[in-house]
Amino acid sequence: MKNRIWKYIAALLVAVFTLPAPSWALGYTQTKYPIVLVHGLFGFDNIGPVEYFYGIPSALRSGGATVYLTSVSAANSTEVRGEQLLSQVRQILAATGRGKVNLIGHSHGGPTSRYVASVRPDLVASVSSVAGVNKGSRVADIALGLVPGVTSSLANAVGSFISFMSGGSGLPQNGRAALTSLSTAGAAAFNARHPQGLPTTACGEGAPVVSGVHYFSWSGAKTWTNALDALDPIFLLTGVAFGEKNDGLVSSCKSRLGRVIRDDYGMNHADEVNQLIGIVNLFETSPVTVFRQQANRLQALGL
Q1: Catalytic residue among 39, 108, 214, 269
Q2: Is 106 helix (H, G, I), strand (E, B) or coil?
Q3: CA spacing 20 to 30 A to 156: which of 29, 103, 201, 261?
Q4: Considering 229, 232, 247, 263, which one is annotated as catalytic?
Q5: DSSP bridge pairs for 209
């Protein structure tokens, strides 16, 4: 009888110590390679107290991750932004002595990260695309059909203003180049040159590993998520442009890349990075938790 009790205790201890670490545990987000966050169109590091990836860098660091925020043109082509990102990746690797980085890009940051992984796969351990405009956006298609010159001029002005407000370093802005890259035709041309991780079917999954780089994606599928969020009415309006589930700016199916974590979170395009200042869907997993879970997923893969 006594021996049986000790066997039960031993089995219980083994079970407890082999359970996955809870998301709040120290070391939960500690990846082998630095995590590099890449903003999307009109992105910024912070404007005053407002962070683009609101609360996400600190949450990742609290679990042991080394996190870097990059700054590329708020509005420009994927290739221009990609070269800017590549330069910063080299700087990060020189500063850390690590051989690779884990890129996590939101919106236009997805293709921007994919560009770096395509031209220098030896420097990239993984690419995680968050609502990435991987097959173009219907909104960009519509915007390019407006009065010639108006859309691109407005995009240039907004990009320059955001760069100034967030302490930008005078990076070049080109609104029409950005919209062209984000259009269906522009994305298709980019994908022909950089196809790594892309699904070959309309709403499928892509190869999870290409040239040693691990590819992941997740995205939302709601436009209106919180009545207190000033951005929700905008996404409710732009979401009408799609004939399928979307987050207000990107079709869920067209955001897919590599291993798809989910494409139907109750989040809109801003919620996915915990904007606006954390006002998100109260009935969905916190965007911060999703980022932490992805860091832990990378950790488990030795990345």
Answers
A1: 269
A2: strand
A3: 103
A4: 247
A5: 214
